[in-house]
Amino acid sequence: MTHDAPPDDVLSTPEPALHRGVGDRLNWLRAGVLGANDGIVSVAGIVLGVLGATSDRSVLLTAGTAGLVAGALSMAVGEYVSVSTQKDTQTALLALERRELAEMPHEELAELAAIYEAKGIPAELAREVAVALTERDALRAHAEAELNLDPDEVVKPWQAAWASLLSFTIGALLPLLAALLMPAPAQVLATVVAVLLALALTGAVSARLGGADSRRAVLRTVAGGAVAMAVTYGIGSLVGTAV
Fold first, then answer.
1. Range of the structural domain that residue 56 is part of
2. What is the DSSP letter of 185?
């Protein structure tokens, strides 16, 4: 008995390899936007806290630079550790799948056929599909169907670390340069305006990438940044007055 080939959407995994590649790039971009957002808010808080206490540019430069470097390194290390854990998990799952394919190929074939049958494909056709995919690339077929994982798309910890470090640094430079390059009377206002505009941009971009309402995202991001800046400036003013 023969069957017509099933439609692509029936045989596709929950996240096809082509779409997953696009998704991975969007995830990196989203992580970069969030890293930049963290850099903006973190260093803006430091800058305004210092400006609340003193207008000494050397103090501002020292504190801002220290916050930038510490924050960027912290982001990079945190991302490296997190993605390394994810990579270890993916590698272990792929190794287990290779071992199972080598030690019990018949059971694995039956398992793959059952997955496609559960998608609504008739049992006999599901078996034919499983055999065809296994003959072409057994590991890929099982990894995509069982684990929703592309063997060629294992995450890269160093890439994640460098992306986080760079995006945080770029974001952090904005409030620092805004404060350092403006004359003393306008430092606070220039920093606040620059930060709020940058946060509005990162909020809009992150919302667009996630398919969410950009207005709510912008409002949320700007409001959070404004509160952080107000609190740190207030603390800096109190400390500066007390000292």
1. 8-242
2. G
Domain assignment of residue 197, yes or no: yes
Distance CA 175, CA 172 (A): 6
Does residue 3 sit within a domain? no
Per the structure, the count of domains in the chain is: 1
The answer to the question of residue 1 being in a domain is no
Contacts of 227 (CB under 8 A, 6+ apart): none
The pTM score is 0.73
| Structural domain includes residue 67 | yes
pLDDT digits (tens, 9 = 90+) for 135-180: 888 888 888 888 888 888 788 888 888 888 999 999 999 999 999 9
Go through 9-33 and write b for each residue having 16 or more CB atoms within 10 A of its CB, e for each that does not: eebebeebeeebeeeeeeeeeebbb
In tens, the pLDDT along 24-67 reads 565 667 677 788 888 999 999 999 989 888 888 999 999 999 99
